[in-house]
Structure formats: structure tokens, C-alpha cells
Here is the input.
Amino acid sequence: MIDQAPPRDEEVLGVLQGRDGVASRVVLSNGQKLVVFNIAWGYDLGERYAHVTTNISPGVDGAAVDVFSTMLVETIVDPGDGTVLYQAP
Here is the structure.
């Protein structure tokens, strides 16, 4: 049996899960900016960061479906009032 490493992205996932159905602006380290309403996520064996698919469960009319690693998340912002909900250390 292979031990799964403990996750290192619980804060990122917690913010996005807690805002399920509400728009969040996610900025990745490569400069990409995503609008996220909901997420599906999982870990590959031995990985400490999840892969995330956005806006598919349920689908959101007009919202792009994106895939990214939580390791790339720099900031999560409430697009309504600009509040920073997560900032990478």
C-alpha cells in the first residue's frame, strides 16, 4: 500500500468549496485569470496538490470550464467587492 502524502492545498480548496455557486476570480501564477463558480477536484497518487476542474458540477451557462493545479493559485478574489479571500504565501 502506498501512503498518500498530506495535502498542501486545504486553504485554497476550502475557499472555493465554501463559495460554491458564487463567482470567485482565481489568478494563477502564469497570469491566467479564471472565473470560478464551482469545482470538482482530486489528487493523483502521491500528490499534495489537487487538480481542479471548474464550472461543471453543475454547469454554469456562459462560464468557461478550466482545469488547473491548486499549486498554481496565487490569489482568490471576490469579484463583487474585491476582497482578497486567499493569497499565496
About this structure: The first strand starts at residue 24 and ends at 28.
